[in-house]
Amino acid sequence: MKRLIVAMILFAGIACGSYAQKYALVDMEYILDNVSSYETANEQLDVISKKWQSEVDKVQQEAQNMYKSYQSDLAFLSPDQKTKRETEIVEKEKELQELKRKYFGPEGELFKKREALIKPIQDEIYEAIKEISEAKGYSVVVDRASATSIIFASPKIDISNEVLAKLGYTK
Q1: What is the rounded CA–CA span in Å between residue 113 and residue 116?
Q2: Are 26 and 143 contacting, i.e. CB atoms less than 8 angstroms apart?
Q3: Residue 119: left if φ>0, alpha if ψ -120 to 50, beta else—which one?
Q4: Which of 96, 103, 126, 138 could disulfide-link 133, Cβ–Cβ 3.0 to 4.6 Å?
Q5: H or E element: which one contains 24?
């Protein structure tokens, strides 16, 4: 009976060992920091974003000036003039909101520009990781930068430098 139990435990151990999965880690922040095209794309996005933000700030300042002017002239305005100025202020604020949505909204120009500039770089990195993981038999590759529950991981399983080398960036 003891031999049967020992044999079953031994068999279970061997079976589990044969299904062991290989894991690897990548640090996407590290990889992206070392990819020059990503840095260039971010610089382009910053320039565009600042340009659009200055347009938004200009319209916002116009709306604020209109409101301040309205407040200072309020005592001297007729009811029709008050209504007209209030309507103009509301229209300017609508224009401001529309401009913000157009440039910075979820489907705005900045989102589209980021997709056009960053997504090809991310896709290239993904393909490199996929090729390395298939070649080395990794079942799971985890991003160390976004996996907050990883407390410690051996540097032996970090393939970030391999990914950079596959992309043509040596470290």
Answers
A1: 5
A2: yes
A3: alpha
A4: 138
A5: strand 23-26
